[in-house]
Write a structure and sequence with these properties.
single chain; mainly alpha; YqaA family protein; transmembrane; membrane; transmembrane helix; DedA_domain
């Protein structure tokens, strides 16, 4: 299963539409989609390392723009779409608790959680829901998301052959680890925050 997805993403990197697909996933992940863009970013950088920094830039810009949509969902549509998304992820109670401490710790939440496997959409929606200042939300999101994507790209560029070897030989194990980390991000948000 992971092998065919990985091969498809590698073949996608050669297409002119690849940056658009990457930006769509980055945008969606920041507002409602559960899968982070890293699943496309890493194979695309491996396939076209000369475009690595461009891909990181695309992820950053699209993620911040998607984050603004997530912020809007939290600020204006929380009672409908926001509640539905948090219910979907089983996180409604934690969002209320998180919101109460957001005024004091919001900047730290955005910076730390934007860089971790905790799904960023939970931060973007909660930021809007808590009425965190939009200007600072955008600045902090750009910093943390940019740092994350440019770090991923730097690591893939530096260790590309080793990463390629691991993915080629153990893609199913890597895929399972990725799913565990993704689910773990939701669990951390739900039970520890």
């Amino acid at each position: 299963m992971f092998r065919s997805l990985y091969n498809w993403i590698l073949s996608l990197a050669a297409r002119p539409s690849a940056p658009w697909a990457l930006s769509a996933v980055s945008f969606a992940e920041s507002s409602f989609f559960p899968i982070p863009p890293d699943v496309m970013l890493v194979p695309m950088v491996l396939a076209k390392p000369e475009r690595a920094w461009f891909y990181a830039f695309i992820c950053t810009v699209a993620s911040v723009l998607g984050g603004i949509v997530g912020y809007f969902i939290g600020a204006v549509l929380y009672d409908t779409i926001g509640v539905w998304l948090f219910n979907l992820y089983g996180l409604t109670e934690q969002a209320a608790v998180f919101r109460d401490t957001y005024g004091e710790y919001g900047a730290y939440a955005i910076l730390i959680k934007g860089f971790t496997p905790i799904p960023f959409k939970l931060i973007t929606i909660t930021s809007g829901f808590a009425n965190y200042p939009l200007f600072w939300f955008v600045i902090l999101s750009a910093l943390t998301r940019g740092a994350r994507f440019f770090l991923v790209v730097a690591l893939v560029k530096k260790f590309g052959p080793e990463i390629q070897h691991i993915l080629d030989r153990h893609i199913n194990i890597v895929g399972i680890i990725f799913i565990v980390v993704l689910i773990g991000g939701f669990v951390v948000f739900r039970y520890l925050l």
